[in-house]
Design a protein that fits this description.
5-stranded antiparallel sheet; 20% strand; binds guanosine-5'-monophosphate; alpha+beta; 3 helices; 128 residues
């Protein structure tokens, strides 16, 4: 069965898309730690990130770098954290999270509740 992220990539499930190319897709995390919290996924559905072939793995980081530059420019954060963790979705993904202190990347913190309009606005700004 296709993962939820494959369904997002295929457009079966809606998402706030930030960027896409032939091999990768970036979209806003629906439970963001901060405005601009983005997920980067390979279109190739592989559960564990280090099971990706070398080309896909390295290309994913180069793709994420471009997205991170947009997040940094939009939010004015000090750095964009690159986080791989969690077991919730069996489709490799990188979290990109705007960060001004380490506390900004605490996944136990309460997530932001954003309106659909705000999600759309953020996605629009990041995809410009
Ligand atoms: P992890 O496996 O990294 O712990 O969690 C997966 C992440 O994907 C979570 O941060 C969760 O909010 C996000 N997520 C799960 N389902 C969806 C979805 O349907 N849409 C979006 N945009 N994000 C999702």
């Amino acid at each position: 069965m296709a993962s939820i992220f494959s369904k997002i990539i295929d457009g079966e499930i809606p998402s706030y898309k930030v960027a896409e190319d032939e091999n990768y897709y970036a979209f806003l995390d629906i439970n963001p730690l901060a405005e601009g919290h983005t997920l980067v996924v390979p279109k190739k559905e592989v559960d564990y990130i280090f099971d990706l072939d070398d080309k896909t793995l390295s290309g994913m980081m180069v793709f994420a770098k471009k997205v991170a530059a947009k997040i940094k420019a939009m939010t004015g954060c000090k750095k964009v954290a690159v986080v791989v963790l969690g077991l919730e979705v069996a489709h490799a993904h990188i979290h990109l999270i705007p960060m001004n202190s380490e506390a900004d990347v605490d996944f136990h913190r309460e997530k932001l509740q954003l309106t659909p309009e705000r999600f759309a606005e953020i996605a629009r700004k990041l995809s410009e």
